[in-house]
Request: fold
Amino acid sequence: MTHLEFYEELLGLPGLKINAIEQFPRKIILHCETQVGNGICPQCGEPTGIVNQYDSRRVRDLDISGKEVWLHLRTRQFVCHVCNRCFNESPEWIMPGKSYTKRQAKWVFEMCAKQPFTEVGALLNMCHRTVERLFYEQAVQQIDLPARYAKVRKMGIDEIANRKGKNDYVCVLTDLERGTQLDVLKDRKKETLRAHFQALGEGFCEQLEVVSCDIWRTYIHVAKECFPNAEVVIDRFHVVKALNGVLDDIRKGLRREFKDAPCFKGIKWKLFKRPEKCDRAELDLL
Ligand SMILES: [Zn+2]
Reply:
């Protein structure tokens, strides 16, 4: 193991690659880049691997041996080939738009519980105003989570027709383990879903382990974007529905092609029946 790899392992930040290290009396600078696959367009949710240019960013992480740790990060600016927009990648362990990691923010927040902002600022070599702002941002994220969301680990996202036949849907969120309804959102647009999940806070987004939804692409994109630790699964109802659709198309094709063959007549419901519920004659026919 090289000493660079040692530091990568010590930091344990996903996708972080350290290229060089500079040591100073009171700080350590790690020159690094991220190597996490494609970027996801914040506008349309499409993945893209096209890099437009590189930017650099300075991010403070937890101290090591009493020294400040600064990541000088080379970040990629991607181009979305669908909406032709540029956007910067932002690793999930950095506070969006800030110059510190999430765990640094958490640490500052915890320190503020025991001493005044000015004291924390002096200890960490940060402006006390920054400390104060950071404290309230963290506090909002930790307090605002409604109680019904507190224990949700597996969530379902589905829609129901608001007005039948009008292509007007509302989106329903359920707690899959407790079988309870969490919320009904006014529509199933990406912006609506994203705003709702972001308002619930990062703690909530990170605690989700499984998100189950139908094949509606927006749900899959939003789930991948908002819930870094969750596995996205397609619920069984929609998988079976899609499979049955294919099976029925094949049946219709055969029925047209072999108009006179009696074996394709009246077969439809037998095809969708569970094998263990079919009798001998039905099995023979199939
Ligand atoms: Zn896009």
Observations:
- The first helix runs from residue 3 to 11.
- The mean pLDDT is 87.
- Residues 41, 43-44, 46, 80, 82-83, 85 surround zinc ion (CB under 6 Å).
- The chain has ten helices and twelve strands.
